[in-house]
Design goal:
Keywords: Selenium. The chain has 248 residues and is mainly β. Helices cover 7% and strands 36% of the residues.
């Protein structure tokens, strides 16, 4: 079930990635030399055998994917399992897992779900608390700062599904969190000084979904290197002077 499609930001590139939600697969698609298009699976998250859930096997349910502005890292969230992952896509045919963090989800210790077989984890992840608030939901929509150093996440997917799988999120409201990103070696760390609690909204509790930067962001724009001959603003000299890449 393809859900999110992300092209590389390089406008001369003819490839990208698509996240397939239910079974948590990522496919790379690309244009071949003969002009035709092809795709193959490059990431697959194995399901977990569980008790106390809707099905005997719990898939990852990959709900959002994102590519950093420099096309080096790919991020995605597994809404059922509860983790955010970071992959180095320097070699796009062979993504390499370099960062992972659990922020709630359906398999945390002390919850109604018992994991009976897991090919990835030796034990169920611990619940996560930030500023005294337990994370009741699971990471969902993502947004990355333009410098790639701060990854933001909210936890509401679709209110009927939120109500079914994470009822405490509906009762208490969503949160927005920030992860600090190691852009050298890879790695994700929760910033415990940052918390937006949508349960405290005047008309709340509220459920938060999309995250956007007003001037453009990593999920919606294609960018050109400063001073690129392909940039339509090059004649003005603005791109050559800009510290950040120039947006089309």
């Amino acid at each position: 079930m393809p859900l999110e499609v992300r092209f590389l930001h390089d406008p001369l590139s003819t490839q990208g990635f698509v996240g397939c939600a239910l079974y948590a697969n990522v496919f790379r698609f690309y244009r071949k030399d003969d002009g035709t298009w092809a795709a193959h699976k490059v990431i697959s998250i194995p399901p977990k055998k569980v008790e106390g859930w809707a099905l005997p096997e719990m898939p990852g349910v990959m709900t959002d994917i994102l590519i950093s502005l420099d096309d080096r890292f790919l991020y995605f969230s597994n809404w059922a399992h509860g983790d955010v992952r970071q992959y180095d896509i320097t070699d796009p045919e062979h993504p390499k897992l370099v960062g992972q963090i659990f922020l709630g989800g359906s398999i945390v210790k002390g919850g109604p779900v018992k994991v009976v077989h897991d090919v990835e984890l030796k034990e169920q992840p611990d619940p996560v608390y930030i500023q005294g608030r337990k994370l009741e939901g699971s990471p969902q929509m993502l947004q990355l700062s333009l410098d790639g150093k701060r990854l933001y996440v909210t936890d509401s997917l679709f209110s009927p599904w939120d109500r079914q799988f994470y009822p405490e999120t509906v009762a208490k409201g969503s949160v927005m969190l920030q992860m600090d990103v190691d852009t050298v070696n890879g790695g994700l760390t929760l910033n415990k000084d940052f918390l937006v609690d949508f349960g405290k909204e005047p008309e709340g509790p509220s459920l938060a979904h999309e995250i956007r930067y007003p001037g453009g962001d990593c999920t919606s724009d294609i960018w050109l290197p400063a001073g690129s001959s392909e940039c339509p603003h090059r004649a003005s000299g603005k791109c050559a002077e800009a510290k950040m890449p120039a947006k089309i």
